[in-house]
Amino acid sequence: MKRIILTSALVASVALSAQIDLSSTRFGVTGGATYSRVTNAHNPSGPLFSGYGGVLALIPVDNNDQFFLQPGVEYLGAGESGRNKDFKGASGYDAVYANNYISVPIYFKAYFSEAESEFFAMAGPKFNFLVSQKTTDLPSSRPYYAVDQLPEYPGVNGKASSFNMAVGFGLGFSYLRRLEITARYDLGLTNTYKGLMNEPGTDPSIAKKKSEQVLSVGLSYIFN
């Protein structure tokens, strides 16, 4: 919770102190592929490949065409699978734990110079709102990974939290400040699967926070 408050306060202080020029805001579209995992959540546990797509705004915060706020709205696929190479062929290897979100990132973005074609970095909070969840091919020994709670496992279920928060970091390259390629990493700050904190067993990871981590690579096109 402290990290969430500090991150939000940092973004707010940047926005308030910056020379924001809303009249020069440009808009764009963005999309790409995602690779996600969830720490301490499922067994077997492996990556899930999905994607994201949405819109963004590029808002100048100085007079040098170098620093910007970049809020956006995206449809984001995340979660994980059971595809751990050590469990190939075992029950649960083909499991999918897919979470789909409406994601609202708010990045502070800095180009390395004022050149039209230039590298950039960005960072900021992401607010993710769950819109759908799908679980398939669950391990036979862990039916409680299902979204709905089973009577024989009171207090245990695989329902994802309706809201989670992450801090996103990104690096990219902009061609003429219009076509951009970006690699991003989202570090989850909140507990994605609170219902698995009471999972049967003695593994110490059961009691640990289950946070979602997402790597993505995508393209953005910013209109003049």
Can I get a quick summary?
With 224 residues, this protein is mainly beta. The chain has one helix at 2-17; strands at 26-38, 48-60, 67-81, 96-111, 118-136, 163-175, 179-188, 212-222. It contains 1 helix and 8 strands.
Task: Give an account of the 3D structure.
- The chain has 224 residues and is mostly beta strands.
- 7% of the residues lie in helices and 49% in strands.
- The protein has an 8-stranded antiparallel barrel with strand order 1-2-3-4-5-6-7-8.
- A hairpin with a 6-residue loop joins strand 2 and strand 3 (67-81).
Helix percentage range: under 10%
Low-confidence stretches: none
Distance between the termini: 39 Å
- Tally of helical segments: 1
Topology as a string of helices (H) and strands (E):
HEEEEEEEE
- Largest sheet geometry: 8 strands, antiparallel, barrel
Query: Tell me, what's the shape?
Result: elongated
Topology, number of strands: 8
User: Measured on Cα atoms, how large is the radius of gyration?
Assistant: 20 Å
| Arithmetic mean of pLDDT | 92
Strand order of the largest sheet: 1-2-3-4-5-6-7-8
* Beta-strand content: over 45%
- The secondary-structure class comes to mainly beta
